[in-house]
Amino acid sequence: MKAELISIGDELLIGQVVNTNASWMAEQLNLIGIDIVQITSIADKKQDIKASLDRAFQHSDLVMITGGLGPTNDDITKLTLCEYFNAKLQFNQDAYFFIEKLFAQRGWKTVTELNRQQAEVPDNCKIIPNHNGTAPGMWFEDKGKILISLPGVPFEMKAMVSNYIIPQLKEKSVIHIFHKTLHIQGVGESFLAELIKDWENQLPVQIKLAYLPQPGLIRLRLTAKGKNKAELETSINAEIEKLQPLIPGFIFGYDDDLLEKVVGELLSKHKKTISTAESCTGGYLSHLITSIAGSSEYYKGSVIAYSNEVKMNLLQVKATTLEHYGAVSEATVKEMAMGIKNLLQTDYAISISGIAGPDGGSEEKPVGTIWIAVASDKAVIAEKFLLGDDRGRNIRKAALSALNMLRKQILLKCS
Questions:
Q1: pLDDT at residue 109 above 80?
Q2: Are residues 166 and 187 in the same domain?
Q3: Cα(238)–Cα(180) distance, integer angstroms
Q4: Which residue in 169, 138, 145, 150 sits closest to 57, CA to CA?
Q5: C-alpha span between 184 and 213 (Å, rounded)
Q6: What is the per-residue DSSP string for 382-399?
Q7: Do 159 and 56 have their domain in common?
Q8: Which domain covers residue 242, as residue numbers?
Q9: Disulfide check for 182: which of 220, 233, 312, 347 has CB 3.0–4.6 Å away?
């Protein structure tokens, strides 16, 4: 089954609201084997809605619309669908029951006339119950095609999709789609492609590979489509087993894994603690670590050593080190790492110092030069990174690189 998603609302077109509804719906439909062939955002105009539906039904079996079902005059989707499907508005007692129930739950005594009118729906559609709002969804079927219209409020739409629409569509879809995503850190996209080109070239024809890079990370997504979900999963897992020995140090997780969570789980598993000393990242590394629930079990704290005075006074970086090598150097980050490790008495410590940009660089140390050190009870290792000239990307890349360095050290020390 092929589907198109249409999001209605001027607020989407002017950038006032980000269209998260479409991405969420696409993911849910894809999980049950429905191919999304197009996602469209259009204005709250009758002619635009009708024209978009005509185009969508030329190549899709299913069209899902969100938006334009509110009680005010600018919400025109329901009336437009009446015209499109040659229907008349009809008061629906079931829809009105849910509206009354919602009003009672919220302590509102009387259903307003505008909200009562929301129980009027086209006489040739099935209603989709809305337990979280006053606008029912509508399900139309005509000439083998399906159109589903839903409110644009995300928590209302998501409940309706999960509880009603997905179960109904599952019965109509006989094709399964299975995805497996590998998360990779520490190698660029082109270098990764070179490392795995022979493996990629021998992939079975039913398995598709996609490279999905983002700042500091790469996701490799393998996708297979067919009638037997178990066979799809088995075939993809077999290919991943072949891939793992080719890039063993770069894969840190799968599917919904986050690097900060993976590292936290390793620290918890081995009962180790971590502290951080940050300069150019300004606390972003600490933010990632503490974004994981339960991080207080292994994370002790941080020093944001932005100035040389803080590096010397709190982290015991020698004045001679700063004078001879500079704040952005191997020697400095190693002393920073040992300084915070000793100060907070942790098993591991990470330090970062660099030139995030957009200015401050030199010929010897251009913008994007980052030094990272990881200290343990046995050694202090340091690595230099040349990341680029975008400040925000450099900060995130540096923090993720630091986490991956720590991950590899934990695995090495505890293996």
A1: no
A2: no
A3: 12
A4: 145
A5: 9
A6: EEEEE--S-HHHHHHHHH
A7: yes
A8: 176-254
A9: 220
- Distance in angstroms (rounded) separating the CA atoms of residues 54 and 52: 5
Asked if 15 and 164 sit in the same domain, the reply is yes
Distance separating alpha carbons of residues 30 and 221, to the nearest angstrom: 14
pLDDT of residue 73: 77
For 148, half-sphere exposure in the C-beta direction (CA atoms, 13 angstrom radius) is: 21
Can you tell me which residue has the tokens 């799809």?
A: 232
Residue tagged 């739409």 (tokens): 157
Residue 174 has pLDDT above 80, yes or no: no
Instruction: Count the Cβ atoms, other than its own, within 10 Å of residue 153.
Output: 17
Range name among 150-154, 289-293, 411-415 with the lowest pLDDT average: 411-415
Whether residues 248 and 118 share a domain: the answer is: no
| Average confidence (pLDDT) over 47-71 | 94
- Least confident range of 131-135, 170-174, 206-210, 383-387: 170-174
pTM of the model: 0.76
Say how far residue 38 (Cα) sits from the centre of its chain.
20
Q: Is the pLDDT of residue 105 over 90?
A: no
What H or E segment, with its residue span, contains residue 80?
A: helix 77-84
Which phi and psi angles does 245 have, rounded to 5°? -65, -20
Q: Is 415's pLDDT higher than 70?
A: no
Rounded Cα gap, residues 356 and 366, in angstroms? 10
% pLDDT > 70, the chain: 100
Q: Which of 291, 274, 268, 243 is nearest to 340 (CA)?
A: 274
Structure tokens belonging to residue 175: 């094709």
* Whole-number Å distance between alpha carbons of 106 and 26: 32
* Residues, the chain: 415
- In whole angstroms, what is the distance from residue 125 CA to residue 281 CA? 55
Q: Clarify whether residues 180 and 164 are in a common domain.
A: no
Helix ranges restricted to H, 196-258? 197-201, 229-243
